[in-house]
Amino acid sequence: MLSSDVARRAALLREKLEYHNHRYYVLDDPEISDAEYDELFRELAGLEAEYPELDDPNSPTRRVGGKPAEGFTPYEHAERMYSLDNAMDLDSWFAFTDRVIKTVGREDLAYWTDPKMDGLALEVIYEQGRFVRAATRGDGRIGEEVTGNMRTVMNLPLTLRGDAVPELLEVRGEVVISNADFAVLNGRQREAGEKVFANPRNAAAGSIRQLDPKVAASRPLRFMAYGVGRVQWAQPLFAWTSQQEIMEGLKGLGLAVAPEAKLCGSREEVGEYFQELMERRAGMPFEIDGVVAKVNSLSMQRALGFTSRAPRWAMALKFPALQVKTVLRNIRIQVGRTGVLTPVAELEPVPLAGVVVSNATLHNKGYIEDHDFRVGDTVLIQRAGDVIPQVLSVDLDKRPEGAVPYEFPTTCPVCDSPAVEDGEAVRCTNDTCPAKTVQRIIHFVSKGGLDMDGVGRKWVERLAVDGVLESPADLFTLDKPTLLKYERMGDKSAENFIAAIARAREGAPFWRLIAGLGIRHVGEQTARILAGAYRDLEALGRATREELQELDDVGPVVAESLHAFFQNAETHALVERFREAGFWPEGGQTASEAASDHPLAGKVFIFTGSLPDMTRDQARALVEERGGVAVKSISKKVDYVVAGEKAGSKVAKAEKLGLEIIDFDRFMELLHTSA
Ligand code: IVH
After folding, report:
1. Each residue's pLDDT tens digit, 631-654
2. Is the confidence at residue 385, as pLDDT, over 70?
3. What's the start-to-end Cα distance of the chain, in Å?
4. What's the CATH fold of domain 323-428?
5. In the predicted structure, residue 591 carries a pLDDT above the cut 70
6. Minimum CA distance residue for ligand 1 atom 18
7. How far from chain centre, in Å, is Cα 151?
8. Tens of pLDDT along 603-619?
9. In the annotation, is 436 catalytic?
10. Contact indicator for 529, 551 with CB cutoff of 8 Å
11. Which residues on neighbouring strands pair with residue 231, listed in sequence order?
């Protein structure tokens, strides 16, 4: 039964989560830590799992992406989404404003100016303050509905903020990916052997046009509002009267708008603003390709109207393209943590948008083949914002005689082992390739692994190059005198370094070790599941593919990857060295928890069905407080299956495995038995 208390709690959690999303993603000013946010999120997800009546498509938990769509449904915009006329220089801007001034018969016009965002145009619709639909611009009259994908865009409010919320609001804006996020995304795509994107705009557009919202959810999309379509207010006399009021209104309702936007008091001021933004362009967080200037007064806008394709009251002042030609001197191959060979163009250094460019990415083998880039070619390169420059095309007229097609290496340039194609990527097949080793140790100590705060990336690289660190196991035999041989290593840093390793040795949870090994397809989530089901590295290493696949979340690809990893002789050596070094995290719990003397210490619990007085997450927390382990997937390692109401297939599975199944009362008894 859904009590009003539960409904109120869920509503409060939703409101809080949306509030903190807004602080984090729109204001860039979070008030709580990620862990606190996660806790609120988990509590809400727990309630929703237990009380399906709470279902709401606009719950913040739905931002992870729902079911894939079969195809996109056409959506007809109620009001046409017009295009913009372009001015390539300031002369055209003054000619345009001459016409505006003539039509309205006034010279003293103000213009709202904002950056021209380079993304995908979209309309987002709110009814009674709730997000109901989103559609791409399409041809301006008919676009495609992308509601499920837009729900995953974290800075888009699902519920509008404030007291004065319109009954109907159509917001127009651009879906974009920041330059920094783009670099990370492309790096991830490259390492995974997936398609790399030519620029943030393509990545944003491609992500919104995915049928599976989970893919969109995994992309760092942002929505930046720049205008409105239909707006209907409950209060009869209320209306926005200028572009400035619209933009401030949208911001107040919780939408993100470009912070650079401003009101210019004259057309000359627009010219100055254009120059200013052009200079700041390279340092902007998002790609912009110009400035859009709009007559500020809405009554003037109405008087000016539209041509067949664009408003007569707005104009895009475009920046010149950030592209230049230079000579491709050489193609160098870099090797990443997972062994992916990435080609890098070594260029004749050339100034471009304020920096000298001498390297640019060539993405992967297919990219070079598709464009037929050859050493010696004159190539067009592009630099946009902070994004790594890239090579766009080749000038065939300037191709030197005798230039030969580039042959992508079939062996690793670092260790000479065979390199094989895997999706879009080419990978070194040698698991002990030194290039991989450095990246692997870095991953081992990073946040995604053992999170050894105090062990710096630069130092790992240095120590690896010197041969002091050849494997993650070497960390555990490292001592302070060795570190202090390095001139730049201070006494305090060396101490922190060693202390971080000692902390990991003593207290690292088993899942961090699994995640830190950098096994392909095994991320944090999978590592946690494995750590819940297996006692230690040795037990995990002995698991067969079939056993592994019995776990939730572990499919054939992950099982195969784990199996291959543990088959490897190098892995055996590594495991042995961890053991010798006394670094041996066990079964989903820290060593100190395992040592706890509560009778539940080390016992593995699984909860299924709904529990009478608490959420499953709360129950799991109680187990963990007593040194036990709460897992989500059933296996032979489970000691107690706590079956609540409507416990489903897990109970049948538990019976088959011969596990002990207990009810909630028995669980409470166990909790309260003292040591
Ligand atoms: S106003 C009727 N403002 O540029 C006014 N558009 O070339 C229409 N765009 O389809 C648009 N940033 O997707 C406006 N600050 C901005 C913009 C912007 C990017 C895009 C928009 C439009 C395209 C027209």
Report:
1. 877 888 889 999 988 877 788 888
2. no
3. 36
4. OB fold (Dihydrolipoamide Acetyltransferase, E2P) (2.40.50)
5. no
6. 116
7. 15
8. 888 988 888 777 787 78
9. no
10. yes
11. 169
